[in-house]
Amino acid sequence: MRIGVFICHCGSNIAGTVDCAKVADAAKAFPDVVHAEDTMYACSEPGQQGIIDAIHEKNLTGVVVASCTPRMHEPTFRRAVERAGLNKYMFEMANIREHVSWIGKDKELNTNKAIDLVMMAAEKLRHNAPLMAKKFDINKRVLIIGGGVAGIQAALDCAEGGLEVVLVEKTTSIGGKMAKLDKTFPTVDCSCCILGPKMVDVAQHPNITLYAHAEVEEVNGYIGNFEIRIKQKTTYVDWEKCTGCGLCMEKCPSKKSYDHFNNGVGTTTAINIPFPQAIPKKAKIDAEYCRMFTKGKCGVCAKVCPTGAISFEMTDTEVTENVGAIVAATGYDLFDHAKYPEYGAGKYPDVITSIQYERLMSASGPTSGHIKRPSDGKEPKNVVFIQCVGSRDKSVNRPYCSGFCCMYTAKQAILTKDHIPDSRSFVFYMDIRSPGKDYDEFVRRSIEQYDTQYIRGRVSLIYPQGDKMIVRGADTLAGAQVEVEADLVVLAVGAESAAGAPQLAEKLRISYDSYGFYMESHPKLKPVETNTAGVFLAGACQGPKDIPSSVGQGSAAAAKVLSLFSKDQLESDPQIALVNASRCIGCYKCVETCPFGAVKEEQDRFNNPKARVIETICQGCGVCTVTCPQSAIQLQHFTDNQILAEVKALCPSMMVKN
Amino acid sequence: MKGLEELKDKIHEILPDLDLVIGWEQGYDGLHATPLFIKTPEDVDRLIIGPLCVHNLATYLPGLKDKKVGVIVKGCDSRAVIELLQEKLINKDNVVILGLTCDGVINLTKLGRKIGSLGAVDDVKVEGEKLNVVIGDQQHNIAFSEVKQDKCENCIYPNALVFDHFIGEPVDRVENVGAEHQSLSDFEGKSFDQRFAFWKHEMSRCIRCHACRNACPMCVCRDHCVAMTRNPHWLSQENNVAENWMFQMIHVMHLTGRCVECGECERACPMDIPLMLLRRQMNRGVREVFDYEAGIDAQNRPPLLTFKVEEDNISEREW
């Protein structure tokens, strides 16, 4: 083999703490290395041309580039090597930036480590073999998980692009958090009025299949060919028959059921349609409150239902859908303020969350849009808003900024004045964060035109006094303690990852951060991709986002799916397991351990038992290769010999020879 | 071990339906037993059982997969049969298991240390707790407990756990339940340097004869053993500490969650390397992490031969 080694400076990123020329010099002494040089930017146009020229001039048969992470530029260099006429798997990358120059300051040690890593890559390359990709067909259907505004946008854009869309929503109606909001900033237009038409479009679009009150149970397969098991949770109402007339809600005697849609502001009936604009507009029985389930008798809804849709015997069912791509748009949940004892830990009825306040202000809410405080139904005159409840607070493990609370608090203060002209609003804040188009102007309007009093400081205690709540806090600009007498306190609770987000991530095999938000493939350049091919992100499941960003990301994810599906076939990754049949003893341990069911039991022509890998199912995880005791099954491009070569390069025998 | 006549009767009864029955016979001298492959009724007369019957006959089963085989097993041997059944390496329909109860078997190395030479033993008799060794006109009376195999010291499975026919009366060893072998704590009492030096010394003695592998009932790769192949090239032919150690570690790792501690590796080792120490240590790890013991229940899945996203005792996530 004739190996060429290229050591990238990455400007000063690597060269700042690694002697690249010395690494190149050392590489010249490695076995089979016939060319080694350092280069300013290996990934640049002249950098790549340098590699290609060297391949031609020196008759190279393999290339090592020592530069950044392969996540960044492995595809770039593989393409360059391919352009020069080599197989793209005759290339190895040593990461001397993230693994060396960025993490150590000692130039000598760094240089030595870089030499070690380059030696490992060169030793592995000596055992590389050309690999060929195969092609397979794509199933041009897309699964979108979550029917909030991001999921709705992604679904509509994909459907408009001619794709068949399967939309799975956990609750009984799409709409998500946006459907609960009264108005939206910075235009103060009615949230449900702008979202409603999109929801109707979803219901009416011929390309969209909606599973509401359903959850993704299992995800199998790979990009282009996923198989999804969806659990259709029981509603005890046959949705084929339900017309959404609402008669059952009128007659249901269990009227004290927790109202999920209104976040516990007011109550609802055990059988209910969450809100008038719900899509699909179908009823569901909440078994926790239904008298038929709790007491064993009632059945009023079944008697009054004009279509006979009620079925108390109904159980969960399962559906399987085959798709080629997945968009996760599972949104967020709100911080539980019970974790703050100083705010009453959820004990005071007149200390409510911002989303509850939205429902109080909403015309479709339990108070028909009249702001009445929960304790006695009185109209509050002094409303105190507290920001950063569960945001920017390490003590509750929420050090991040939720991003949208400053804006919705400004909006809620404006709307309070609109609803109750003689009211006063106070906002306790840490910093005002309003970096969006027309956002800062909006906050100024709240302060200047609507006379909202902003107090920069944290609240240390809320306590009741008579029928008022006393809010005690610091005014750090005045350098004084302040106490505000409030009729109602609204906590601007921050965003956290949706309940069950990590579990779904495991099913999708995508990464998530320590807070449960899904990891994008690259924080700047691949914001809607994940590290699992064919799985994309939209909306707040990736991190807290306001409506415009969520909608933008929904469209971006749809664009990614559409461009993926613009091809009819994809190239399969040849880095998969293969069985050397002459070494296989047919113990089938690999069959037992393969997480994907990719290994099959077969017989050779002498009826000896042999294992065989189904190439299109294998994901190249390597579990089978560590299971096989005689190493008959080998992961291509990561064979035992390749890994042993790397280990031996790194660790010359530590044992004293005897 | 009791019930030789009962056992012989049973073999006569089942032999017509089988290709062969594997047992033990007296070897070339009074001290050694050797495996016996019974194919005719006459062969049955040569059968012996007792403390000399050290061999785990289950080792032969995977190689006789296509034959109908009867096999005589002690408690420890039966665990190997179960493990082979668990891994579907043998077919239960083709195996008839004759289960014994066992009071322990002899460790020739220990006996050798007691009586000097093992070269000319004429006869060995068990008399209660005593072992009577006859060498010419000399007689050695030795406490049996002092020359038992290590595995017999804290044995909790004296009776065959799986059998088609049980010979004799089952005995109890509940007093040993939960006891770990003394060698583990002895070894752990040493410093890191002492332990490293210990294994370096032991591994320098390994001659890579592969007797440990050939005697192991769980080493089923036979001609395809990774220790012999050049592709993948895990081991060179060079005999040095590093390569010997690598070989022994590969053997231990391949036995993870599969080793039934029958002790055949250590017994077969001509260099008396304490190989069971490695296996006991590894089995302790398997017990702690997977709450699992190999070769107890044919329906169980060995923990490393299955795939679970979430292991019960390994908390990788917060939920």
Automatic annotation (TrEMBL), chain A:
InterPro entries: 4Fe4S_Fe-S-bd, 4Fe4S_Fe_S_CS, FAD/NAD-bd_sf, HdrA-like. The keyword Secreted does not apply. Its cofactor is FAD. Gene3D superfamilies: 3.30.70.20, FAD/NAD(P)-binding domain, NAD(P)-binding Rossmann-like Domain. Coiled coil: none annotated. It comes from the Bacteria. Keywords: 4Fe-4S, FAD, Flavoprotein, Iron, Iron-sulfur, Metal-binding, Oxidoreductase. One of its GO terms (molecular function) is metal ion binding. SUPFAM superfamilies: 4Fe-4S ferredoxins, FAD/NAD(P)-binding domain. Residues 233-264, 281-315, 575-604, 609-638 form the 4Fe-4S ferredoxin-type domain. The keyword Translocase does not apply. PANTHER family: COB--COM HETERODISULFIDE REDUCTASE IRON-SULFUR SUBUNIT A, FERREDOXIN:COB-COM HETERODISULFIDE REDUCTASE SUBUNIT A. Belongs to the HdrA family. This is Heterodisulfide reductase subunit A. It comes from Desulforhopalus singaporensis.
UniProtKB/TrEMBL annotation, chain B:
Pfam families: Fer4_9 (PF13187). The keyword Transferase does not apply. Keywords: Iron, Iron-sulfur, Metal-binding. This is 4Fe-4S dicluster domain-containing protein. One of its GO terms (molecular function) is metal ion binding. The lineage of its organism: Bacteria, Pseudomonadati, Thermodesulfobacteriota, Desulfobulbia, Desulfobulbales. It comes from the Bacteria. Residues 197-217, 250-279 form the 4Fe-4S ferredoxin-type domain. Gene3D superfamilies: Alpha-helical ferredoxin (1.10.1060.10). It comes from Desulforhopalus singaporensis. InterPro entries: 4Fe4S_Fe-S-bd, 4Fe4S_Fe_S_CS, Helical_ferredxn.
